[in-house]
Amino acid sequence: MNTIKTNSVLSIKLDETLTAREKVLLIDDDRIFSTIMKNAATQYGMELDTVGDAPGRRRLGALDRYDLLLVDYDLESTTGFAFAEVLNIALPHMPIILISSSDRPLGDRRFQLPNIIGFVSKWSRPEEFFLKSLELYRNMPLLGHHLAAV
């Protein structure tokens, strides 16, 4: 187990057996944020790939090798929600966490697609960002062939 200290009194533990098996793709056009997250993921033993924009329809099949997608809401060519709508049809079992540097209310109808399992703020510290993402992933509702962890 890796122990990650936070500003609070609590220490949060990452289960290495879970993180070592999860393959995550970060889709974000902010190269600085992507670099910071890639370095942090390596430090925590996570496998994280990054791309700068949503792949076109012909390349959607390549996403199936990932367990989780972290998608920026404001991409250059589209929105994270529009991309999630496409994936909801093409890869309905693929869990997506929308991320953004602006606060977006979870009660907004835009987050009510079955494959969107949550929202994480880009203003979170890297360890909080990943821990929240993993928590959402582990506790997600059943999507296609993926089972929610208990």
Structural write-up:
The protein is of the alpha/beta class and about 150 residues long. It has helices at about 15-20, 30-45, 80-90, 125-140; strands at about 1-5, 10-15, 25, 45-50, 70, 95-100, 115-120. The strands form 2 sheets. The chain has a 5-stranded parallel β-sheet with strand order 4-3-5-6-7, sandwiched between helices. Strands 1-2 form a two-stranded antiparallel ribbon. The protein has a single domain, classed as Response regulator (Rossmann fold). The protein is globular, with a radius of gyration of 15 Å.
Keywords:
alpha/beta, Rossmann fold, 5-stranded parallel beta sheet, globular, disordered C terminus
What is the general shape? globular
The neighbouring-strand order within the major sheet is 4-3-5-6-7
Derived from helix and strand composition plus strand pairing, the structural class reads alpha/beta
**Considering the protein shown, what is the CATH homologous superfamily?**
Response regulator
Give the averaged pLDDT, no decimals. 79
First-residue to last-residue Cα separation:
18 Å
CATH architecture: 3-Layer(aba) Sandwich
Overall helicity: 25-40%
What number of structural domains do the residues give? 1
